[in-house]
Hints:
The structure holds 2 protein chains of 2 kinds.
Chain A lengths: L24 E5 L9 H5 L21 H5 L5 E5 L1
Chain B lengths: L1 E5 H12 L3 E4 L6 H12 L6 E4 L3 H13 L5 E4 L1 H16 L5 E6 L13 H4 L7 E4 L3 H15 L8 E6 L7 E5 L3 H7 L27 H30 L6 E4 L6 E5 L3 H14 L4 E6 L1 E3 L3 H8 L4 E6 L9 H9 L4 E5 L9 H13 L6 E3 L8
Parallel strand pairs in B: 2-3, 4-5, 5-7, 6-7, 10-11, 10-13, 13-14, 14-15
Antiparallel strand pairs in B: 1-8, 6-12, 9-11
Amino acid sequence: MTATGATVKEPGSSKQNKTGSWRTFRPTLDKDKCIDCENCVLFCPEGCINENNEIDYDYCKGCGICAEECPVKAIKMERD
Amino acid sequence: MLKVISANRAIAEAVKLSKPKVVPVYPITPQTSISEYLAKFVADGDLPAEYIRVESEHSAISAAVGASGTGVRVFTATSSQGLALMHEILFVAAGMRNPIVLGNANRALSAPLSIWNDQQDSISQRDTGWMQFFAENAQEALDFVIQAYKISENENVLLPSMVCVDGFILTHTVEPVDIPSQEEVDEFLPDYKPTHSCLDPEHPMSLGTFTDPNYYMEARHDMEVAMEGAKEVIKAVNKEFAEKFGREYGFIENYRCDDAEIILVAMGSICGTVKDAIDSLREQGEKVGLLKLITYRPFPVDEMYDTIKNADRIAVLDKNISFGIGGVLFNEMKAKMDIDARGFILGLGGRDVSPEDIKNIVDITRNSTDSNKINWIGLKEEES
């Protein structure tokens, strides 16, 4: 539903836009390879990898920076 | 009260009576005197509004959008290059559903540079989501501004309106105009009470936001629904206006069309000339009529077709051209109606149109076998 004039009357509504739908490539983490360095958590521009290295696919746009920055190649990018 | 004034003065008087709270305007020929009259009204305390002296038309319409977002009535005015400069924000005003009213003094677009009249400027804004009303004279200019606010601010419409008057022909000539009293206008046009969009620290909201593909199409579809729905509102407002002020308007004016074999279709001040030419042709027994189109957007297809469907041939007069296809009104009518029409381009850049030209158009319409030809009227033949 769009309000007349596309006005937004509830604060924080950007959470409703699940930008994960933009994704073409999906990052998946191999927990056995992971050394828990948290590089992916720090580098994720969307802030959608939590401290347990779990990826929030509702908002992950599939940019692949986590996979690029992973020192042990524990993250694979696969066609979604 | 009857006063002898120009259409620009008539628009300024209508704005004063409509009591907008914010008036951002940038002067441009031939609209300039609208901005001057309004500046004087504000300086003299006759119009309690914020008059914003902006640095361009892009800023004028941007300030109008911002002001309208705070939930107040807004007016701006421009012409030609100024309207073209506003183009980007005209879409924004309509998309944000700001019921702004804009007075446009119709003038040709450069190049070559011309300050004189045609209707290319407003016609070129036909897809922005603004309603457009074309006045034949100064009285209509005044009446249309007051009605435009009531139509635009209706919660089923919430689209901006453009009231168009032919530059110089109307903006700089004077004629008697009945100016209603403030009390009458106040009764007809109460204060604007925004329901959909209003910046208020107590009830914060975001206006003009980014939308992803999940939302955009619905917002645009809503605009089309509103534009179609505006037709009922325009009818109701026209009726209420007639009851209150005694002057009746519709989407169109039917001038001697009922038994006409040839009907001319035109907008704006040229309709006065056409009516005179029709009167003299009628005296010679020729069955001709005029469909004056007032409401160009929304496009009143049913009302137009009802008026012209029994005529043998239609002549469409365009003071504009879409290069490569011809007059815009001509092509829109051919697209939407089953008619045998001839298209005429005339009056561009202030080229005079005489009653003789109108009679010539009737002759061409009667005799022409080529319905696709773009007929240029008053064009100087090159010397061979």
